[in-house]
Amino acid sequence: MKKLAFLTLPLLLAACTDSPQERADRARKAFDAHDYRAAQVDLAAALESNPQDPALLELHARNALAMGDGIAAEASLTKLPEGKRPADFALLLGEANLLRGMADEALTVLGSDSSASAQRLRALALLAKEDREGAAKAFAAGAAGKPDARLLSDYARFMLMGGDVKQARALADRAKAADPGLIDTLLADAEVATAEGRLAQALAGYEAAVDAYPGNLAALAGKAAVLGDLGRTADMEGVLKALAEVKGGGQVAYLQARAAAARSDWQTVRSVLQANEASLVGKDEATVLYAQALVQLKQPEQARAKLQPLLTRNPGSATLRRELAKAQLAAGDPRGAVETMRPFAEVQTADAEDLRLLAKAAEASGDPDAAKLAEKAKFPSAQAMAATLAQADTAMKQSNWGNAIAAYERLLAVTDGKNPLVLNNMAYAQGMVGNKTKALEFAERAYKVAPTSASVMDTLGWLLVESGKDPARGLSLLRDAASKAPGNATIAAHLRSAEKG
């Protein structure tokens, strides 16, 4: 142990003797590499020796803004003498004010500047003041001029908040054309892709952002959320470890709770959400997860109290009705659960899971329609099956793998699980989002049911090759598939790739 201390001491001494200029140079390199936390360490040391250096103060302010620290940015900006202020000083100060929650001050600093950068900050300031109409006008004015990736990215998020996914996608694509590597562009594209259900694209976007901008909270949190949506909880836990020391507030807390729920650790779910309740106000999905934990921990009355106000505001939410009914059943109020779920009895396309929950509540409450509801839950209507199949087909055509997987899961839950088309498409969708193990499981099931289908052989063969699980068997299957369907371009392409190794 003493020997180790002796060996490391010179290294520590060398690190401590770096000159202020060396620290400043290293900070600039870290900033250019988007490693803002590393830059911050060296900037603090360099400024300690040269507290009035204009170049260092400006870099410190820009680095602080990149880290979302408006207080530190404002402190450095105000130390800059007027003759040494950069051309975009007002924009930097405006952004610092926004990060400090001072929307009016930000608007004052921006003045009459009509540039895209100013319009972006103006829109965000107006949004902070809950002036959505004013924000929309500012965004539109900024988007009308020369393409600005930051403005277009925030405009895309603004449209997403309003539920206009199509327009959000158009704006995100414009941002990508303007500056594809910008963090704002990468995040906006991933957020829109998530809303579209294109989870593989969203994950790729967040991974690109994490690689290009080390330690970025939004990128790491977004990646963790998508991995959770894909059911890749082990990978999600790995990303969350990188967030362990980051003060991410409610956003990170919710993800930590989701990961705990995936391993059925409901005590941790409640503890994490309870400790961060103030920062999770308005996040309905967190409230639903909290209620689920309370039901699991035998506190259904508290769950009811959290869910009822949400359902009152959103009476059309199937998720809220389902979770409230579960809480009511757990609390010994089956009649209340029946009333909560009753609307589903009249919907021809109602999900089988909801019908089963309604039937269970009806039986427990002695409802005269209990037997009829149980029969309906046992055999989903043809309309419900057709609707789910149509949803799955549309999702597949749009490469909306997340929605496709959800639809096929519902179909498999209410059938004998032997439909080769459903199994094969589920395998393909799972493969497209990176769930290779699940994809292979479904592909093997499809092959067992339909071993002579060229499409089924292609899916299983390509997965075996691509995953490296059994390339030899995969190649054999692809050759058989190609001989059965010689005109199929997809199968031919898979075979060529497999033969190249």
How is this structure best described in words?
With 501 residues, the chain is an all-alpha fold. α4 runs antiparallel to α5 (70-79), α15 runs antiparallel to α16 and α26 packs antiparallel against α27. The protein has helices at residues 2-16, 20-32, 36-49, 54-66, 70-79, 89-99, 103-110, 116-128, 132-143, 149-161, 165-178, 183-196, 199-212, 217-229, 233-242, 249-262, 266-275, 284-296, 300-313, 318-330, 334-341, 352-365, 370-378, 382-397, 401-413, 420-432, 436-449, 454-467, 471-484, 489-500.
Please provide a brief summary of the model:
With 501 residues, the protein is an all-alpha fold. Helices cover 75% and strands 0% of the residues. It starts with a helix and ends with a helix.
Strand segment count: 0
What is the beta-strand fraction? under 5%
First CA to last CA: what distance? Answer: 49 Å
- How is the main sheet built? none
- The number of helices is 30
Percent of residues in helices: over 70%
Catalogue the unreliable spans.
Answer: 1-15
InterPro entries: CellSynth/LPSAsmb/PSIAsmb (IPR051012), TPR-like_helical_dom_sf (IPR011990), TPR_rpt (IPR019734)
Pfam family, one: TPR_16
Keywords: Repeat, TPR repeat
Organism: Novosphingobium jiangmenense
